[in-house]
């Protein structure tokens, strides 16, 4: 196996584990629009990384965390509805990212790969970033699983039990921001949300418990990225869209087995 293909496969599996597990909470909490808003800020993060001379991943994390914090803070004020806040941030972030990137990006900047991913350009340093985030998210989920699940499935009971809704909401959104920061090269800025919502949507059809849903979501995500990666190499098409198409096919097939209503 060629080195670049092995790195791409390793990166895809790591991202699948992260996105597959956190994506279940996105589905349960009906937060797909939030993940899309954070993903749109990724272009601004890339611009920050280029301007500062730091690693692009640093810029992605800084901008993602900043936007997630601002969104959570504004949601606590109850001044605007959640969808209005997310819509405002989504479009502002995407527009700022495009403008700043146009100003600081050189002729060698591959805009297509930023928008739709270029998994075959994954480096060893990218692998380290992905699995560092995987370990961090895994530790946080293992520690706070019961509390996050309680606030997700029954927020009133969780608050009555003494849990700080704001703190755990911020924690979850920061994990989403970290996930987005390492997913840009896999499927690109415009397609990141698909990795977070389609695998859990497929898994929900067959799962009988939250833990089963997380496990099946990870499996579905890994299967889709492997199929998409192979299709990309074989047919010489963009990897990100190929992965999303594979996810779409799996979602369509899953609907043949049940009449459950998805959230």
From TrEMBL:
Gene Ontology cellular component list: ATP-binding cassette (ABC) transporter complex
Keywords: Cell membrane, Ion transport, Membrane, Transmembrane, Transmembrane helix, Transport, Zinc, Zinc transport
Chain segments annotated as transmembrane: 6-28, 40-73, 85-106, 127-146, 166-198, 205-227, 233-253
Signal peptide: none
InterPro entries per UniProt: ABC_BtuC-like, ABC_TroCD
Chief place where the protein resides: membrane
Membrane topology term: Multi-pass membrane protein
Any single biological process term in GO: transmembrane transport
Family: Belongs to the ABC-3 integral membrane protein family.
Protein name listed in UniProt: High-affinity zinc uptake system membrane protein ZnuB
Originating species: Bathymodiolus azoricus thioautotrophic gill symbiont
Native organism taxonomy: Bacteria, Pseudomonadati, Pseudomonadota, Gammaproteobacteria, sulfur-oxidizing symbionts
């Amino acid at each position: 196996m060629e080195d670049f293909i092995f790195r791409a496969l390793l990166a895809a599996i790591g991202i699948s584990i992260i996105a597959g597990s956190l994506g279940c909470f996105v589905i349960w909490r009906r937060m797909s629009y939030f993940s899309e808003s954070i993903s749109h800020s990724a272009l601004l993060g890339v611009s920050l990384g280029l301007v500062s001379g730091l690693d692009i991943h640093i810029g992605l994390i800084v901008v993602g965390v900043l936007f997630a914090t601002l969104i959570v803070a504004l949601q606590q004020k109850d001044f605007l509805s959640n969808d209005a806040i997310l819509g405002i941030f989504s479009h502002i972030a995407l527009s700022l990212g495009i403008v700043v990137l146009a100003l600081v990006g050189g002729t060698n900047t591959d805009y297509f790969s930023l928008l739709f991913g270029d998994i075959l350009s994954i480096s060893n340093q990218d692998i380290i970033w992905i699995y560092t985030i995987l370990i961090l998210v895994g530790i946080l989920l293992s520690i706070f699983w019961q509390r996050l699940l309680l606030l997700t499935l029954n927020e009133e009971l969780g608050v009555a039990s003494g849990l700080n809704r704001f703190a755990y909401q911020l924690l979850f959104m920061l994990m989403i921001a970290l996930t987005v920061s390492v997913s840009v090269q896999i499927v690109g800025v415009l397609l990141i949300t698909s990795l977070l919502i389609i695998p859990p949507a497929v898994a929900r059809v067959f799962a009988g418990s939250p833990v089963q849903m997380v496990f099946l979501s990870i499996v579905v995500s890994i299967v889709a990225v492997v199929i998409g990666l192979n299709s990309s190499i074989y047919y010489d098409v963009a990897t990100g869209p190929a992965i999303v198409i594979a996810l779409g096919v799996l979602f369509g097939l899953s609907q043949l087995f049940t009449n459950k209503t998805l959230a």
